[in-house]
């Protein structure tokens, strides 16, 4: 690859080492566009959860909407990975962002336009159907975007790029839910005759926010080699990818861990509307504060992970952070004090993002470029694909028992997952260090 594609932008010598991936122009364009778009997406996610709970007062339906938005990733993820390896990842991400903008716009129109009875047209089945559509688009977006992320930075900055990407995601999680909560509350006061007007405005803002990332993608240097398709290659089939993973114990173990955490750990986010309303006695603003607290903790974890320069020791981080997350969620389940809940969810966010960044960094660093799209599709299937089943499990458990017991189930499960991963860590480490990809990283670090 030419110096134009490998070397950082020399016009930005002031960028600190913690943000070193920002020295690459295409990465800067991508990350700043995502910051705006993801803020809108978090506004929509918060407003959607609140709208579903307002319309139905059902914890199970909260989980069902989460299931509808995530299960398509499990069904279509493999196809998304094949597309990511065979087509231009840049073009694929551009198309998926446009489709997600259309989905947000449809959701806004249905919520803002009144029907014959004066009530908004939006019904729960509309939300579920549009959630399935968004999930289907994300089945193609996620493997392409994750593989594309590594193409816009050289290999020695992958760890930093992934950490900054997570930091951007969680910065949006700080501002998006807080803005959504305040906007919904303000609109309830200003437009008393317009039901769910604040939620509809959140959806509209999200639709408009996609313009930022679409424009940034179009500004990229698409003539650069790294924005072109990786394939077609002789390995561009599912069977070869499965064979590749069969001989990579370390990659399989990381995926199993991520899938188990997605099943039992990540669904705690689905319960936040119920925690805000039932446990803490709050409204949409309380939901905004809880989600923002998770984001603040996750941002802190992202900054800590961005400071790391190598992958050594990330296995221990995964095990320790997963166990700490489980313990924190168990403690949070016992409180009905808002500020303690915010602190607890902040710590939970820090632990969860530290584990997930470590896991994704190891997978991205230890996979061959020819298989990256398909491997990342399997990774997405294990993370996003398992979350819908976790959402149904935790949501149903909360419906039949209560939110506190559902959170305790999540916490205990994650402690067990951490113990199992720690037990197998020596074998995982040995498999990783014997792989040709690890040898490539080691030799590359020495040359650099």
Description:
It is a multi-pass membrane protein. It is found in: Cell membrane. GO terms for molecular function: transmembrane transporter activity. Pfam families: MFS_3. It comes from Sumerlaea chitinivorans. The protein is an all-alpha fold. The chain has a single domain, classed as Growth Hormone, Chain: A. It contains 17 helices and no strands. Helix 6 packs antiparallel against helix 7 and helix 10 crosses helix 11. It is globular, with a radius of gyration of 21 Å. The N terminus is likely disordered.
Descriptors:
mainly alpha; transport; Transporter, putative; globular; Growth Hormone, Chain: A; transmembrane transporter activity; 448 residues; MFS_trans_sf
Summing up helix and strand content along with how strands pair, one would put the structural category as mainly alpha
Q: Quaternary status of these chains? A: single chain
Largest sheet: none
Low confidence ranges = 1-6
Compute the number of structural domains: 1
Distance from N terminus to C terminus (CA atoms, Å) equals 15 Å
Q: What is the annotated CATH architecture?
A: Up-down Bundle
Radius of gyration from the alpha-carbon trace, in angstroms: 21 Å
Range of helix content: over 70%
Number of helices: 17
């Amino acid at each position: 690859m030419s110096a134009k594609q490998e070397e950082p932008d020399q016009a930005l010598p002031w960028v600190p080492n913690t943000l070193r991936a920002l020295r690459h122009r295409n990465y800067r364009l991508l990350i700043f566009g995502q910051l705006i778009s993801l803020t809108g997406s978090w506004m929509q996610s918060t407003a959607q959860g609140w709208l579903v709970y307002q319309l139905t007062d059902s914890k199970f339906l909260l989980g069902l909407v989460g299931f509808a938005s995530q299960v398509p990733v499990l069904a279509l993820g493999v196809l998304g990975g094949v597309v990511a390896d065979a087509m231009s990842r840049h073009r694929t991400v551009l198309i998926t962002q446009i489709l997600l903008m259309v989905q947000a716009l449809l959701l806004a129109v249905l919520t803002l336009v009144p029907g014959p009875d004066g009530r908004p047209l939006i019904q729960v089945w509309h939300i579920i159907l549009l959630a399935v559509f968004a999930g289907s688009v994300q089945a193609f977006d996620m493997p392409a975007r994750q593989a594309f992320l590594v193409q816009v930075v050289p290999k020695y900055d992958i760890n930093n790029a992934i950490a900054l990407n997570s930091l951007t995601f969680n910065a949006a999680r700080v501002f998006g839910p807080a803005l959504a909560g305040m906007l919904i509350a303000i609109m309830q006061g200003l437009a008393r005759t317009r039901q769910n007007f604040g939620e509809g405005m959140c959806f509209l803002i999200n639709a408009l926010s996609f313009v930022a990332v679409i424009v940034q993608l179009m500004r990229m240097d698409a003539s650069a080699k790294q924005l072109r398709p990786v394939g077609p290659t002789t390995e561009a089939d599912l069977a070869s990818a499965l064979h590749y993973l069969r001989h990579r114990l370390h990659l399989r173990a990381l995926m199993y861990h991520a899938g188990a955490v997605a099943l039992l750990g990540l669904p705690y986010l689905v319960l936040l509307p119920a925690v805000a309303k039932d446990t803490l006695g709050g409204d949409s603003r309380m939901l905004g504060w809880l989600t923002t607290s998770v984001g603040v903790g996750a941002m802190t974890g992202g900054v800590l992970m961005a400071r790391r320069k190598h992958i050594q020791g990330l296995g221990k981080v995964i095990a320790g952070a997963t166990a700490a997350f489980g313990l924190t969620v168990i403690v949070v389940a016992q409180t009905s004090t808002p500020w303690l809940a915010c602190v607890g969810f902040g710590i939970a966010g820090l632990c969860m993002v530290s584990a997930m960044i470590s896991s994704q960094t190891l997978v991205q660093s230890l996979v061959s470029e020819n298989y990256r799209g398909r491997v990342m599709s399997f990774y997405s299937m294990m993370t996003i694909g398992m979350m819908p089943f976790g959402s149904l499990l935790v949501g149903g458990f909360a419906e039949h028992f209560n939110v506190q017991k559902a959170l305790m189930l999540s916490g205990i499960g994650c402690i067990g997952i951490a113990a199992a991963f720690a037990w197998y860590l020596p074998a995982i480490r040995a498999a990783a260090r014997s792989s040709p990809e690890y040898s490539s990283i080691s030799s590359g670090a020495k040359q650099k």
